[in-house]
Design goal:
It is built from three helices and five strands; from the N terminus they run ββαββααβ. With about 140 residues, it is an alpha+beta fold. The protein folds into two domains: about 80 residues, SH3 type barrels (Roll); about 60 residues, no CATH class.
Amino acid sequence: MEDRGIVKKIQDDIAIVQITGPEECSSCVMRKLCNPSGGAKEIQAQNKIGAKTGDEVVVFIPEGIGWLSVFINFTMPVILLIAGIIIGKILFGKDIYSFLTGIGVILLYALVLIPVDRKMKDKRYIPYIKEIIRPSTDQGLYDL
């Protein structure tokens, strides 16, 4: 999927790109979770082509990234909560301890997920800037 946007900020080799119109998200299955308001939204994208702040760009978002995100952020915690509750019930026998075991497993998952997420920034799973449509030096960019 490709979206158009404007580079708002550059951090190392990652650009913060503002995707403006709801038409860019209209075909995405994750639009209700990702951007419930339907307005402008900002995403992170690899900036291997050297876009600068203010450039209008095309961002390529790999197919399946929405489903992967749902699985990691929603499905896995539910599975881990249920598994933790079952393990807690087997080990401790009381409901409160099984619930606390389930919550503890989710917290461990979050503690593992945060550093893994930071390492995945340079992997194939994040969007990247495919091309610069209009450089920031173009006068038409400021007529928005």
